[in-house]
Write a structure and sequence with these properties.
By secondary structure, this protein is an alpha/beta fold. It has two domains: 72 residues, no CATH class; 137 residues, 3 Solenoid (UDP N-Acetylglucosamine Acyltransferase, domain 1), CATH 2.160.10. 27% of the residues lie in helices and 17% in strands. It is built from seven helices and 19 strands. The strands form four sheets. Strands 2-5-8-13-16-18-19 form a seven-stranded mixed sheet. A hairpin with a 4-residue loop joins β18 and β19. The two termini are 31 Å apart.
Length: 274
């Protein structure tokens, strides 16, 4: 069995200090209680998407260009969760600019930069989620609903193109990972009338692995150290240490005590918080 921990990747000369300076400014700005998050979002996104645009040139833009430019300001944008009846506006409104900033950052070339992107999203997650532990890693194009119903433990990894539907609430325990293109839900609809919505909380325990393209349905409790196989659909609670696969997912293998005891030793995390 090969053991391949993440290795550190040095940045080009000058890039590390440039990224550190920008991220420190962003973190300091968001920690300031007087920060206007809508303005912060608008300024950052305008600099990312229209770095050469002078304010004096905006009047001469085409109507299409003006509409595109207006979308740098989250106050000019509506997002799907705003249409949900159960939304808590007092909690969502201060988060919306950061959710829009997160999503638009990921759509830019900056979002493909692993080092910058992970550290950028980690800063935002501390202000978007209800709680976020240390060393959180989110790769590009992770989507969530309200944000304020997310509780994330320590050393959690969420990979590319993951949907975290936190309408009813999602808890992810320490050291768990959600792989590329997985979906985790915490709402469902009545089969007769889709306007009737159920909002059970979904809980992912500690040391869980939700693997590629898997789906976890609303209200499921994924027990500690269990694993959901690629492409599976989990419809019910799991037992600790078991592997589940299929549609619907069924238990197929229990990790033996010997397997659980022979885990690889801890290794340095190149993205760990200082």
């Amino acid at each position: 069995m090969s053991f391949f921990p993440l290795r550190p990747v040095p940045l080009a000369d000058g890039a590390a200090s440039l990224y550190d300076e920008w991220l420190a400014w962003l973190k300091e700005s968001l920690n300031d209680s007087a920060c206007d998050r809508n303005e912060l979002c608008r300024e950052v996104l305008t600099d990312i998407y229209y770095p050469d645009l002078d304010s004096s040139e905006q009047a001469g833009l085409s109507s299409t260009a003006k509409v595109a430019l207006a979308h740098m300001d989250p106050r000019n944008v509506t997002l799907e969760p705003e249409y949900y009846e159960e939304i808590d506006l007092a909690r969502y409104e201060p988060r919306k600019p950061l959710i829009w900033l997160w999503e638009m950052f990921d759509r830019s070339s900056l979002g493909e930069n692993i080092d910058l992107g992970i550290r950028f999203r980690r800063i935002l997650a501390k202000h978007v989620f209800n709680s976020c532990g240390k060393n959180f890693k989110a790769f590009t194009h992770v989507r969530f609903s309200f944000g304020y119903n997310m509780d994330v433990g320590d050393n959690v990894v969420v990979h590319r193109h993951v949907l975290l539907d936190d309408r009813g609430g999602i808890k992810i325990g320490n050291r768990s990972s959600v792989s590329d293109f997985a979906n985790v839900y915490s709402h469902s609809h009545n089969i007769v009338d889709g306007r009737i919505v159920y909002l059970p909380r979904t809980v992912i325990g500690e040391g869980v692995r939700i693997t590629y393209h898997a789906t976890v349905l609303a209200g499921t409790h994924v027990a500690d150290d269990s694993m959901i196989g690629a492409g599976s659909m989990l419809t019910r609670n799991t037992d600790p240490h078991w592997v589940y696969v299929g549609v619907p997912a069924r238990k197929i293998k229990e990790k033996s005590a010997e397997e659980r005891a022979s885990k690889a030793p801890p290794t340095p995390d190149p993205f760990a918080e200082g």
